[in-house]
Design goal:
By secondary structure, the chain is of the alpha+beta class. Helices cover about 25% and strands about 20% of the residues. Bound molecules: zinc ion. Zinc ion (ZN) binds next to helix 3.
Length: about 120
Amino acid sequence: MDLLENFEALPIEVQNLINSFGDDFTYDNCNLLLTKLKPLGYSFEYGLDATPYNLVKVLCKNDFDDIVTDGDESAHQWSQLCSGHAEQMEKTEYHIQTHGSGICGIKGCDVESEHYIDF
Ligand SMILES: [Zn+2]
């Protein structure tokens, strides 16, 4: 879901930041806006015309309430993701695999998961 299409639902600091850039986007200020949105947990893409689109909330490990740590020496950590949240995690450094099962590990999400994520 492109959050730019649901602008009023964004946190006010995100709205204010985006509004402070006005309508006149260039590659340079798209990059600057990306840099400033990152600590707020948001990211977007922009096209050849330097128009931002596909604004998404970038999820991180803190957004999970169900992380499994394997009991063996590897202490490998993983969780499950529903398809919507897997899409949101695609921009992160984590590795997402298909064929997950169980309930999505994101806080407050109780959708059946279809993906695994490795931490
Ligand atoms: Zn989910």
